[in-house]
Amino acid sequence: MSKPYLSLSLDMDNQWSYMKIHGEKGWEEYPSYLDIFVPHVLKVLDELDLKITFFIVGQDAAFEKNHKYLKQIADAGHDIGNHSFKHETWLHLYTKEEMKTEIDTAHDIITEVTGKAPNGFRGPGFSWSNTLLEVLAEKGYAYDASTLPTVIGPLARLYYFSTSNLSKEEKEDRKEIFGKFSDGFRKLKPYYWNLKKGRKLLELPVTTMPVFRIPFHLSYLLYISNISIHLMMLYLNIAIFLCKMTKTEPSFLLHPLDLIGGDQITSLAFFPGMNISSDRKVFIFNKVMKKLAKHFTLVPMDEHVNAIQKIHKLTLIKT
Ligand SMILES: [Zn+2]
């Protein structure tokens, strides 16, 4: 019997979006580390013979300095997704008009620069709304991947606020980053949103540990590996076991800073977790991927979505 699927995706947050989210000055000049990160990540993925989905931010595609690197991603055979234009974690507050402009502008520029048209979306900071789902469905996108069904979203937010330089207003704007508490109880397995005019949109949630609803994407594993690699592997093994028990095909999330350290991205050396070297991060990544590959077929999102559309009978959920 063939192994169940596990889709891999990386949210291509650039240096400026980390600074913007964190309230660091200077983000308005859109500093970029794509020249360092892209060659690095492509090499790491190539060595493991992995193809993944990169969710790209439209604003990055709008700068000529980034074109070469974004094109390299697509040319290396990776799948391309839409990660909004401005990367604002309060995307869920946008009106329909604002949402349409945001999605369309990002879509067009990403398509032009990479040569591949995205057909899936992930919101910045897991932000999403019914308006977003309607806009994506009207546009003919195949899926949304913005939900993170975890009950510890509010906790993650508290930690993140405590390490940032955000003002009260900025915190207010970001108050739903890492998801709403009610998102914690949403389905883990893919399902269809039942939208207006009989439209449907596939939802592929970022998978959290079945039953416990705690995240196990790479940032969390890396954090635990700092305490002990054995503990990290135990945690991962429990997650894999529960996914298989509940027949959940995982969507596994990566971030740039999971794979590269402050030794290479010196401008972000002060960030949490950036004291870990690139070598160590790549070592952990390889270990995690090899473990996952024993149990699952690792694919990009588009392949996972195609398989779901063909085989699975899914629940319809009203928004
Ligand atoms: Zn992001």
General description of the model:
The chain is α/β, with parallel strands linked by helices. It has one domain: Alpha-Beta Barrel (TIM Barrel), CATH 3.20.20. Helices cover 44% and strands 12% of the residues. The chain contains twelve helices and ten strands. The chain has helices spanning 15-22, 34-47, 58-61, 64-75, 96-114, 130-139, 153-162, 168-173, 218-227, 229-245, 278-295, 301-311, and strands at 5-11, 53-56, 79-82, 120-121, 143-144, 191-194, 200-203, 251-254, 297-300, 316-318. The strands form two sheets. Strands 1, 2, 3, 8 and 9 form a five-stranded parallel β-sheet that branches. Strands 4-5-7-6-10 form a five-stranded mixed β-sheet, sandwiched between helices. α2 packs parallel to α4, α9 (218-227) runs antiparallel to α10 and α10 runs parallel beside α11. The longest helix has 19 residues, at 96-114. The radius of gyration is 18 Å and the shape is globular. The two termini are 36 Å apart. The model has no long low-confidence stretch (mean pLDDT 90). Residues 11, 13, 83, 87, 124 line the site of zinc ion.
